[in-house]
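quick one
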Amino acid sequence: LRVGLMFAFYVAVVAKTARDPAMTIGAMIMVVQAMKLACTALAGVARAAGSFYADSLFFEDLVEFLKLQPTLQATGTPVSAVPLLQQSVEFRSVSFAYPAAESRVLEDVSFRIESGERIAVVGENGAGKTTLVKLLARLYDPCTGSIEVDGIDLRGIPPEEWQQNMAVIFQDFVRYHLSVRENIAFGDLTKPDSDEALLKAARLSGADRTLAALPQGLDAKLGKEFSDGHEISGGEWQKIALARAFLRDARLLILDEPTASLDPKQEFETFQRFGELAQGKTVVFVSHRLSTVRTADRILVMDKGRLVETGTHDELMAADGVYAALFTRQAAGYQDHPAQHDNPSASDPS
Ligand code: ADP
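structure w/ adenosine-5'-diphosphate:
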């Protein structure tokens, strides 16, 4: 349409020049050029108005986001100068449904973890393991029942007071497209930014090998967001995320399949190091790997949102219930070769 109109306009101008002796060729060219410029300017205005409208839609999202209030409200006051988790953390008949979801993901879950215990949580996909550790980290509150730390209901403690006691790595940990230094230092923003502490955390998590391969070391940028960024493998990102947890001097470590991208040997080594570092700390980890789960003091077995079994590996195998079935099925390789039970290089049963 636009081309048609322009063409009609040019024909009219040429016809007018031919008929009107006052209209020179120069004037004709000037009119045509002016018309072209006006068209371009108008198209620019229309484009700007369009993108302004598109941007305003995002802006509305931002305004909505900034208006959000935290859903977790602490009713109580800060507890005391004594760090939390001196004795225990206890789930008492906890049930939970995600906001806006109809069915419950956790149903009447009760257990007690003593301070300093090393607990593994196992179960089929969708059994509620991640949800359980999210409640423990107080990202959500239970719908019914309560979670108590040293006998105090978590709802009575400001969330940040509880969370400053823990280091958490979820499966979907964040890959910050920033420097290695920042990626690790985010683990504890209260710590002074000392190379020594960062390098120690990297050594403990096994990220030191990744660091050694980066020419700028701690200052190397990760990810493809920057033109000079280095893309690293999933396993390497995971070790960087683990280094964040190692940097934090936490009393409670929560690891939700933190080593899923590592091979069984690397996972075994990482947990060995974690075990050394976690002396005296409380550790709750979700893992599918038998060699790792066996190292726990106690194993919680989840099935369809319920806690169905608790005990050590040997107790649960002897009970011949859900846990035994899970691992007899998943760990056929281990069962066939008992000598490999503790051999981290054995193939992944999961
Ligand atoms: P697991 O860690 O054992 O695989 P999850 O705790 O991740 O299990 O999930 C348990 C159930 O909760 C699943 O049915 C899952 O679809 C549902 N679920 C998980 N996260 C959410 C969420 N943010 N909103 C709604 N449902 C969720």
